[in-house]
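Aim 2, interim progress: modelling of the zinc ion-bound target.
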Amino acid sequence: MGDISGHQPGKSFRHCPGCGAESLAERPDRSVLCSGCGFHYYFNPAAAVAGIIEDDLGRLLLTVRAHDPRKGTLDLPGGFVDFSESAEDALRREVREELNLNVLHCDYFGSFPNTYVFDRITYRTLDLAFTCTIESFDPMALSDEIESTLIVPPSEIELDCIGFDSIRNILFRYLNSRSLLPPCTLL
Ligand SMILES: [Zn+2]
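Predicted structure of the complex, ligand included:
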């Protein structure tokens, strides 16, 4: 596989994974079809989750990414959904793995498309956001994916420092829903 343009997923394979021939044709329905062996593959977005976690004072927990993509930028806890896993279970697992925190309750907030480049491959994802209640911040311990955390009053979040479009859009909608955006904020 080579570099995938986010808008041209059909460019991701040069040789057919079925027969090895250079006989793949990109089709207009996000798929590639091999004229030799009939291998037919559809590109679909991957599911991911993100957690909006507030403390007792209504401040939001943000993470600083320790690795690429977007190393050093602000993020929300979360990650990819595993096979046969619900989004809610993925959220609980990711929050536990990244921060050692236990999610007691989560409410669906919305879905936000994203583009995620890793090892020269561009993945298209659909990030499912949840507002979360956690048991306690006391056991917090960071995995090596997280450089540090910030606990920030929502009105002080710098949307320009958020690494991914989906996370910025989640926070934009969240702040907007609570009437916390300055009137001149445009994305
Ligand atoms: Zn083939």
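The pocket of zinc ion is lined by residues 16, 18-19, 21, 23, 34, 36-37, 39 (CB under 6 Å). Residues 1-6 have pLDDT under 50 and may be disordered.
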